[in-house]
Design goal:
Chain lengths: 335, 294
């Protein structure tokens, strides 16, 4: 296998005083291949946004800090780069789309200028060429009448249109990785579908790898090849979409899948996971999910489960299901 | 994109340019138009002073001391027999230049300090904020008097003095606004695109905090004219025999009951200009904000 485009190794992010830090991202590792698409799911506070911000070194410092690990982009460790080199990476190699399309555009700049700004920074084009490129991008993201819209201000756009402008800004310099942090949260369902379709389209046309952060498994299932499930700052399950949705191995993933309302289901009460997410940094020992887990055993309170292999490309951090899977494969091996 | 066709859009009109917005805002409101005309008239008077003034503003005449308005001297004469109208016309130069220049200078210095403090925070913010707190604890006039006493009179010193009195106010406003704008997702988005810190400040922070700063500037144009009048009144502003609206009032006060014309004339001029700048300031704020300009 060739080296992945992005490889996150044992990333940790801490907040608060150094003496008594709160770990919001704890030993997270995963990778994205060039042109691939990975979805990160988790509840609020699971550390998924902090993980994505770490890649561009946008974790607010202070009070936060990246306390450990490596982020290898194309083989180079982004965390080891001098701070003043980060602006060259941002936007050119790795771009990001945020969750607030309504406020992610500068209200006093025309959208043409804002998209053009990214181009100005990373590409050597004169102003006429830049304008042409911006028009091209507006067309690419499906904004009707680009020539009439290029000099408009953000408030003249709807939320969905603004998110398209954000995407145009992000892909302006053909980045190799596009991080989309809950790109559809603030949008209507129909607009959500359009924006996701656009992201897929961009990925196919430009070959951009996409890291999609979401709390919505449906969105991930629809647009990603691989899934990383995070809980309380840790990766609890990772694998290709198919095996995660067919055979979820971690009780948390199973519970999440069970909570999705189904149209063909007659239940009138939705399934919910009992309890709530532990406070960031409050779990120092054992499995963070044990308090809400239907399968918990004594080991869960003592030892933190590592990621066990459940298949060629499927890992999950659970003592109980790993043991069951091992027993099953042992039984199959010696009939 | 096949799905794009589902979208519905309001009909697209080409976005109006700044100049068009400017024209619309000015023309749509009679008060703004009127204020603009008043400012324009005063600026023209100041520019054309040598041609408009009927007499030399410094020429004294013992034959006509403290005369009331007449066909020869429209606003009468002062205690040295100088023509009040001519003195006011020439005085508008000092008053207007001071009124425009001091807030502008203060805005540049104050905004720079405030933005730096608000954007970088930490120790930089603490040092700048404490200095600003120290300066703001003095009343503007007192601060101006202290600095004027240290620097001495003279036109350019007065500009510096009045600016210095306004700097803390601008710094405060700029700092608070910067701290708010800094948190906006579009600033983070700009950082994520790779925009460097100085460019973030120049292109994303300052344009977004410009509205209150500009409004403050127009409001303080009025204050600067008033402050100059106060300083001249106290004898540390524009030095006699040079005229300014402030020292015309001061000179006139000695003989207010016998001959109120200089005080009434200069007072009226100050009121007009101050009011015009305030009204104009509101319009400028609206022009700077693309959302209200629609």
């Amino acid at each position: 296998m060739t080296a992945p485009l992005l490889r996150i190794e044992n990333l940790s992010v801490e907040f608060g005083p150094r003496a008594n830090p709160i770990r919001v991202v704890d030993d997270v590792s995963f990778e994205i291949e060039a042109g691939g698409s990975v979805g990160v799911v988790g509840e609020s506070g699971s550390g998924k946004s902090m993980t994505s911000l770490s890649i561009l070194r946008l974790v607010p410092e202070p009070p936060g800090r990246i306390s450990g690990g490596r982020i290898l982009f194309d083989g180079a460790d982004l965390l080891a780069l001098p701070r003043n080199q980060m602006p060259d990476i941002r936007g050119r190699d790795v771009a990001m789309i945020f969750q607030e399309p309504m406020s992610s555009l500068n209200p006093v700049m025309t959208i043409g200028d804002q998209i053009g700004e990214a181009i100005l920074l990373h590409q050597d084009l004169n102003s006429a060429q830049r304008r042409k490129r911006v028009l091209e991008l507006l067309r690419l993201v499906g904004i009707p009448d680009p020539a009439g819209r290029i000099d408009a201000y953000p408030h003249q756009f709807s939320g969905g249109m603004r998110q398209r402008v954000m995407i145009a800004m992000a892909v302006a310099c053909n980045p190799r990785l596009l991080i989309a942090d809950e790109p559809t949260t603030a949008l209507d369902v129909t607009i959500q579908a359009q924006v996701l379709a656009l992201l897929k389209d961009v990925r196919q046309r430009l070959g951009t790898a996409i890291l999609l952060i979401s709390h919505d498994l449906g969105i991930i299932a629809d647009s990603c090849e691989r899934v990383v499930v995070m809980y309380a700052g840790r990766v609890v399950e990772e694998g290709d979409v198919r095996s995660i949705f067919r055979n979820p191995a971690h009780p948390y993933t199973r519970a999440l899948l069970k909570s999705i309302p189904r149209l063909d289901d007659e239940r009138d009460r939705l399934y919910q996971i009992p309890g709530s997410v532990p406070l960031a940094g409050s779990v120092t020992q054992g499995c963070a999910f044990r308090a809400r887990c239907p399968l918990r055993v004594e080991t869960c309170a003592v030892d933190r489960p590592p990621l066990f292999a459940f298949g060629p490309s499927h890992k999950a951090a659970c003592w109980v299901t790993a043991e069951a899977a091992q027993a099953r494969s042992a039984a199959e091996a010696s009939p | 994109m096949t799905t794009a066709s589902i979208d519905t859009f309001e009909p697209v009109s080409p976005a109006p340019s700044r100049l068009e917005i400017f024209r619309q805002v000015i023309l749509a409101r009679p008060a703004t138009l009127f204020a603009a005309i008043v400012i324009l008239i005063f600026v023209l008077i100041a520019l054309l002073a040598p041609w408009l003034a009927p007499y030399n503003p410094l020429a004294q005449s013992f034959l006509k001391i403290n005369k009331p308005p007449s066909a020869a001297n429209w606003l009468g004469t002062d205690q040295f027999g100088r023509d009040v109208l001519s003195r006011m016309i020439y005085g508008s130069r000092n008053s207007l230049i001071l009124g425009l220049l001091s807030p502008a200078l203060a805005a540049v210095v104050g905004t720079t300090l405030g933005v730096v403090a608000g954007y970088f925070g930490g120790i930089v913010d603490r040092v700048i904020s404490r200095i600003v707190d120290l300066l703001i604890s003095f009343p503007e006039l007192l601060l101006a008097i202290i600095i004027a006493a240290a620097l001495g009179g003279g036109f350019w010193n007065i500009v510096v003095v009045i600016s210095a009195a306004f700097v803390p106010g601008f710094a405060r406003v700029a700092r608070a606004q910067t701290m708010a704008v800094r948190q906006e997702p579009y600033v983070e988005a700009a950082v994520a695109v790779g925009v460097s810190t100085p460019v973030i400040i120049l292109r994303h922070i300052i344009p977004n905090i410009a509205a209150p700063i500009v409004v403050l500037m127009t409001l303080w144009t009025a204050s600067a004219i008033r402050l100059e009048a106060s300083l001249s009144f106290l004898g540390i502003g524009t030095q006699p025999p040079n005229p300014s609206w402030g020292n015309i009032i001061r000179d006139g006060l000695n003989n207010l009951f016998g001959s109120p014309w200089p005080v009434i004339g200069a007072g009226f001029a100050i009121t007009c200009v101050v009011l015009a700048f305030n009204v104009f300031g509101d319009a400028v704020r609206d022009i700077l904000d693309p959302e209200t300009a629609q």
